[in-house]
Amino acid sequence: MESYNSSFLWTLMVVFLLNISFLSVQGLGVNWGTRATHPLSPDIVVKLMKDNGFDKVKLFEAEPFVLDALRNSGIQVMLGIPNDFLATLASGVRVAEDWVTKNVSAYVSRGVDIRYVAVGNEPFLKTYKNMFTNATLPAVQNIQAALIKAGLGRQVKVTVPLNADVYESSSAGVPSEGNFRADIHDLMISIVQFLSDNAAPITINIYPFLSLYADPHFPIDFAFFSGTNAPVVDGSVSYTNVFDANYDTLVWALEKNGFSSMPIIVGEIGWPTDGDSNANLQYARKFNQGLMSRIIRGQGTPKRKTPPDVYVFGLIDEDAKSVDPGNFERHWGIFKYDGSVKYKLDMGKNRTLVPAKGVRYFQKQWCVLAPGASESDPNLADSISYACTHADCTSLGYGSSCNGLDARSNASYAFNKYFQTLNQQKGACDFHNLSVITKIQPKTGKAGCEFEIMIDLGKHEKARKTPASAAAGRLQGYGYLAIVAFLLSSIVGWVS
Fold this sequence. Notes:
Elements: H1 2-23, E1 28-32, H2 42-51, E2 54-59, H3 64-69, E3 76-81, H4 86-90, H5 93-108, E4 113-119, H6 133-149, E5 157-159, E6 161-163, E7 167-168, E8 179-180, H7 185-197, E9 202-205, H8 208-214, E10 232-234, E11 237-239, H9 242-256, E12 264-269, H10 281-297, E13 309-312, E14 346-348, E15 351-352, E16 366-369, H11 380-389, H12 407-421, E17 435-438, H13 469-474, H14 478-495
Family: Belongs to the glycosyl hydrolase 17 family.
Signal peptide: 1-27
GO cellular component, one term: side of membrane
């Protein structure tokens, strides 16, 4: 009997240890942007993240309505500071102290689990022409000092989300030749040294889609995770995808400059679904499923086997984002503007994406080109242009989901976008007597091209919070170990 009890006890201990290992797997992160004309209620978004297994979120700025919704949610937060505020923060530590008091201390005390402050967002992009170069490090230093003064220096870490163009390889183009960009090399070393001294990570944004977008000759299969017939060979390592090669270039750059153990966070990575010929549902699903499978497996890269924390970009489409980089900027979400699912994604443990709950819409009516309106009417072109200046018509662009509609459907799509963006207001469907409101849903005849109805911001149903959500956040880390220890001690007493 004693032998049986011992075997039984060890079996249970193994099970619990395996559970500890499983529970300690790094969580799944996502970027939550709010540049939308009709944003989902923050309570609904938080519920959407929890329902889909996202327990880390990266925010681009401190918005009270967003932070309030994250209270006691069990979701860890990376809180961003926009580039435009870097110079102000760099001007003095008092400004940083005020910012931390208002945006970090106040919310941490109310149950928001802020883990990082992301100072700036890709501040060294070449397109910025050194606009933020001198302010970034002083801003980081002042925020760090403010966090320490607030007693949060251990709990909340600073980081700087950087674009992958801060490092580069030689003409050979292999990761082992990687180093920081020559024009900012010394600055990058100073930033990395400061982060290292404060036990803080470096954050990098990697976008294989942009490699393809910038170079029409880029080998398309190299952008995904399913292998390639033309790998990049770097010594004994063959790189079959751009993510591994890009990430390891950073690892090599850090190692060459004395930071071989520097922790890395992937702050943004994803694939858009519209706005370009390579931005479509099929490619987005292929890329994000490959990414998700790596995260589930805990897969690292050839140079660094330990997988980084990853924040998928992004959660929801944002129809008010700038399209200066390209029309695809408004279509990065794995969910549509209303939290509905774009495509099936295996999230592990037999889970797939589930849509947002409690969303309410305007009534089912659409603004379209009037049946009697002439396509040659001299006011038609200007009316379409006006509609698309004040609403998001990026889906009509070349290579996009609604590109190639006939003239009538094209005009109707533009009119409806404007009508919905203006909340179906009276007079919003008045284009020189060329338009009419219909209760019959128009059809485009193209898969993926739909006449949408916007969210009614006044009729959001509050998403229910999971009853145990507050406790869930406190159960992380040593909390799990404490529970397991208690259960094991009970089992030992029972078996003996």
